[in-house]
Design goal:
The chain is an alpha/beta fold. It has 12 helices and 12 strands. The protein has 2 domains: about 55 residues, DNA polymerase, domain 1, CATH 1.10.150; about 280 residues, Alpha-Beta Barrel (TIM Barrel), CATH 3.20.20.70.
Length: about 350
């Protein structure tokens, strides 16, 4: 089994230490780190590095072992889904979306997911493993290189539960915000969690400028247990307490994601319950027209019901918007990732 460290898991200090141990000049470490920060992970593309050093780098570390193997382009809105093969054979996906402000990427934090949400294709596909911080970073850097355009914002909302891979998530954030590396501003990053309270508390203590989103999807414990059996182990009252503490400590607004399922969680009674749940919190509700997939037990909410529900929230003093749907024709929309490839989709 491959046990060499993936080259994008090397920090600048790691590269400097490796060069020092090998007896290479310090400036070589800077050159190598610059290539890695540009998403160049194949040593033969590091054109200003002598071949003997490239050979040693290839021998000691796993280089070129994360590859884009499929690209799907939406005929509706130009959204691009990229599929990556990892060195151990696991497959992950990310989605690149174009907005007026530039490119945004939705990346995966795990190969598969353990949370068991009944409305999500990723959960139905099973769990492989957590990604390293370098594999998370690789999705951004390789897609940026592939698109030949800078990624302006990152959302960690793809396959997996980021807070179930907390240490690597924080490592990724530290790497991508490094001003001497990719240098992405923390406020251009959003992390979405299904509500793992102990990790929310840890994240709160960091006082990070990274945006936090909570996958809520239900206004009461009973319905949440049906939709999200693993996250529902935490009572909504306790989750809301943790969210209120986050907004108090960080001064940041929190986003709640709420996928709408026809005649399941889109009633006026649900709007009333949401009002009571979120009352007084500095928050925003991001409504999502839920996407169906083969085997999905729920139906997509009808447009009229979505509008009625959104208006009901606004009337109750809850700031709510409907998320723009992107990439649904290539199984790249919310809740659809990973499933297409496993069902034999071809690129």
């Amino acid at each position: 089994m491959e046990d060499r460290k993936f080259c994008l898991d090397l920090t600048r200090n790691d590269v400097e230490e490796w060069c020092r141990d090998k007896g290479y000049p310090k400036f070589r470490a800077g050159q190598i780190d610059k290539w890695l920060s540009a998403g160049v992970i194949k040593t033969d593309e590091m054109t200003n590095i002598p071949k003997n050093i490239r050979d040693e780098l290839e021998k000691d570390f796993s280089c070129g072992s994360m590859n884009i193997i499929h690209e799907f382009v939406s005929q509706i809105d130009g959204t691009v889904k990229l599929v990556y093969a990892l060195k151990d054979g696991n497959i992950i996906e990310s989605v690149v979306m174009r907005y007026k402000t530039g490119l945004s990427i939705c990346i995966s934090s795990q190969a598969g997911c353990k949370m068991g949400c009944t409305f999500c294709a990723s959960a139905h596909a099973g769990f492989g493993r957590s990604l390293t911080s370098g594999e998370m970073l690789g999705q951004v850097l390789l897609s940026q290189k592939h698109m030949n355009e800078k990624i302006r914002s990152v959302v960690v909302m793809g396959i997996g539960e980021p807070f179930d891979n907390y240490d690597n998530l924080i490592g990724f954030i530290n790497r991508i915000t490094d001003p001497e590396g990719p240098g992405l501003g923390a406020r251009h990053i959003t992390v979405s969690t299904c509500g793992l309270i102990p990790r929310i508390k840890e994240f709160t203590a960091l006082k990070s400028q990274v945006n936090l989103a909570i996958s809520l999807h239900a206004p009461n414990d009973e319905l949440r247990k049906e939709l999200m059996p693993v996250p529902a182990h935490y009572a909504l009252k306790d989750l809301m307490d943790a969210c209120r503490e986050y907004t108090k400590v960080t001064g940041r607004r929190i986003t709640f994601e709420y996928s709408l399922f026809d005649e399941v969680n889109d009633t006026i009674a649900c709007a009333d319950q949401l009002q009571r749940l979120l009352r007084g919190m500095n928050c925003h509700v991001n409504l999502i027209a839920a996407n169906e997939f083969d085997g999905s037990p729920y139906k997509r909410c009808r447009k009229k019901r979505i509008e009625v529900f959104r208006n009901a929230l606004e009337q109750r003093g809850i700031n709510a918007t409907l998320r723009r749907e992107m990439g649904s024709d290539i199984m790249a929309a919310c809740g659809q990732l990973r499933r297409g490839i496993e069902q034999g989709e071809k690129g």
